[in-house]
Predict the 3D structure of the following.
Amino acid sequence: MRILTGTCHCGNLNVSFETELDPAGMVPRACQCSFCRRHSTAAVSDPAGTLTFRAADPAQLNRYTFGLRSTEFLICRTCGVYVGAFMPDGDGAFANVMAGVLDARDEITQPPVPVHRSQENFEERQARRRIQWTPALLIQESR
Ligand SMILES: [Zn+2]
């Protein structure tokens, strides 16, 4: 397993992505929802990996939701960087990470593929993420 690390711009939000996938083989998904279009997102995930988000200052973590509210868009309030989408699911969670926040971003050379999800209902969206996204943790360091 390789650990791909990353941060938001100011360093408040840290990402640790354990995966056996080669970054050069990852095909980022460019979600076409109204939020992701505004950020030109390119998301990666690995169902066999693990994704850990850490907020050094949880007060500066914005867990933005909209629409079906099935996922939280993790955004740093200090620097404005969107690091990944996080879906709490029972005792666990699933998430993806934005390719651009990873230190290995330059190794992810495949062009993002546009994906359209607006036809999915809440249950379909959850089911897809359980298969496609990465088992994830969100750690809020101080409180
Ligand atoms: Zn930040």
About this structure: The radius of gyration is 14 Å. The pocket of zinc ion is lined by residues 8-10, 12-13, 76, 78-79, 81 (CB under 6 Å). Helices lie at 34-39, 122-132.
